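QA checklist item 7 of 12: single-chain prediction sanity check.
[x] sequence parsed
[x] length recorded as 188
[x] structure emitted
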Amino acid sequence: MMADVDPITEVSTAVQAVLRPFMPNWQFELVPSELTLTEFEMLMGHTPWVGFGWTGFEMGKSSGRQARGHHKMRLTIAVKNSDRPGRFLGDALGPGLYPAMATAVCVLQGKTLPGIGTISVATADQTYVDGYSDMVVALGVVDIEIGPGALGAPFDTLADAPDFAGLIATYVVADGATFTDTILLGAP
């Protein structure tokens, strides 16, 4: 199962599942955390939408050799409405940016994703794309962190990955001597 060896996809899918009941008519897309102008123009053809971009993984200072820490994601929220107040407040034509941002923040903050970690909203801000005001779009970003969690458990799940058969590590010990250890996963 791919999610077992790809925790980034697992986290993204879980966050989308939390938001989906509260934004049923919204387009959800995986996007880069920073959109190019071309990507932005393409996505504006079908609003309202939420873009999910992975911004990184911050290792915990005491995680040792385990890849444990916090996943970071940026949600980009876009609504399009020719009426300026409607763009921000919502109206009969569609949802507004402010209620959408408030919904995302309230639904996500403190939500625990079983087996993954707890969501914390780091920031929620309105943003814009300079020179694109004629597109009648309102944009916001919600930065979240999910954790503490793992970036992967190589001794449990990577054994099932088709291209990962073993790990060779060389250690330097206190007296300067070195030794090499081979760890084979799966059947020999």
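[x] summary fact logged: The two ends are 21 Å apart (CA to CA).
[ ] second reviewer sign-off
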